[in-house]
Design a protein that fits this description.
Number of strands: 11
CATH superfamily of the largest domain: P-loop containing nucleotide triphosphate hydrolases
Distance between the termini: 64 Å
Strand order of the largest sheet: 4-7-10-3-11
Shape: globular
CATH topology of the largest domain: Rossmann fold
Largest sheet: 5 strands, parallel
Structural class: alpha/beta
Radius of gyration: 24 Å
Helix content: 40-55%
Length: about 375
């Protein structure tokens, strides 16, 4: 295939996407959910200011600074970086090191183990842009990973660079940034294999124009996947070999999971401006305890075995339950989070199957919650809505 100058010109012809932070602080303050590079712009700037370590090509920060951004810590001049991921630091180090090589990164694990969260923050720290995103679904086709066409221009002009619509993957290759593919295993197998050429040859052929787009230095791919949801398509061995796989586990301890939930609830509460008080740590602990015991099939003291429901009862679901409780307390209560505000959310998260899960939940309420000291209010509230 002839390699024309179109590869270089296509990068020039396509305007550099506007900065995600464009529009000023006034616009940002009105956003429902900011990108990581917007939400933590100050931390990223402080890290860049004191970061004098070697950086891979086109990286905004060194691997040391990326690790500090993800895991938190105090900078030499005293500035405090908040942790974005609470867990095994070695997993983050492996992930960052992988992205500095020619291998792509696959973050795997159960639903709700912060795969997408880590993916977004890695992209924000490394290239300052987490928006090169392909969302994997059963309907995702090759154009989402390669390119599409502006059909009005295609009919008027025929195949041309002007009629070509680059995908986030192509734009990441052209600009030397990270592309993110969420829920890779939800994409059909034949579409998944579109990535093989991109990851092995670092090029994207455009046969209609007899040219190609070659990746600039700094380009790489972060994908996420889990094998618990329905509609999973296994990755081919050829594709698996091109990824370094990092499995993100569920939080190891109750205290670690409570800390994650408390931190995320506080962040989301500020964003959503819920008219409720900061939730009592004890209420968060009760939600997390219920989820962990049902997830693991045994009470925390190891004395009582319990049945597990069909859902995953992840940390992300615990965060959602507490946030929903805060909304109930703020809009329909006195602003203080109580058992009655949490009961419906807990029940909804557990009872996915209206028959089998309901039996599991009622049995857990009767054998564990009812007799647990200080939990009578939660027992009564949950029995009312189950």
């Amino acid at each position: 295939m002839a390699k024309s100058k179109a590869t270089a010109s296509s990068t020039k012809d396509k305007a550099e996407p506007a900065s995600p932070a464009a529009g000023g602080d006034g616009v940002l303050s009105e956003l429902q959910r900011k990108h990581a590079e917007q939400e933590f712009a100050e931390e990223l700037a402080e890290l860049a200011r004191c970061d004098d370590r070697p950086r891979p090509p086109n990286w905004k920060l060194s691997p040391w600074a990326v690790r500090t951004y993800l895991l938190g810590g105090k900078l030499p001049h005293g500035y405090e970086i908040t942790p974005k991921y609470v867990g095994n630091a070695r997993l983050i180090e492996i992930s960052v090191a992988t992205l500095a090589t020619d291998r792509a990164l696959l973050l795997s694990g159960l639903p709700g183990t912060a795969k997408s969260w880590v993916s977004e923050h890695l992209a924000a720290a490394i290239c300052g842009d987490s928006t090169m995103l392909v969302q994997g679904t059963a309907g995702t086709d090759e154009t989402a990973l390669r390119y599409g066409w502006n059909y009005a221009r295609l009919l008027a002009e025929g195949p041309s660079l002007g009629a070509l619509v680059p995908s986030p993957m192509m734009r990441a290759m052209q600009t030397g940034k990270l592309a993110r593919v969420e829920e890779l295993t939800r994409i059909s197998s034949d579409v998944q294999d579109t990535l093989i050429t991109i990851l092995s040859e670092r090029t994207m052929p455009i046969p209609e124009l007899d040219t190609e787009v070659q990746a600039r230095r700094g380009f790489n791919v972060i994908a996420t996947a889990n094998n618990r949801d329905k509609g999973v398509n296994e990755l081919s061995s050829a594709l698996m070999r091109r990824f370094n796989i990092v499995v993100l586990p569920t939080p190891e301890t109750l205290e670690q999971e409570v800390e994650i939930v408390e931190r995320r609830v506080a962040q989301l509460g500020r964003t959503l401006a819920l008219p409720a008080e900061k939730p009592a740590l004890e209420e968060i602990r009760r939600v997390v305890t219920i989820f962990r015991e049902l997830r693991e099939g045994v009470t925390l003291d190891g004395k009582t075995k319990v049945k597990s429901p069909s859902g995953t009862l992840s940390t992300a679901e615990a965060i959602s339950v507490v946030n929903n409780g805060l909304a109930m307390a703020g809009y329909y209560g006195d602003g203080t989070l109580r058992a009655g505000d949490l009961a419906a959310g807990i029940t909804g998260a557990i009872v996915k199957d209206p028959i089998q899960d309901r039996v599991v939940w009622l049995e857990y309420l009767q054998t564990v919650v009812k007799d647990r000291e200080g939990w009578k209010d939660l027992y009564r509230a949950c029995r009312e809505v189950v």
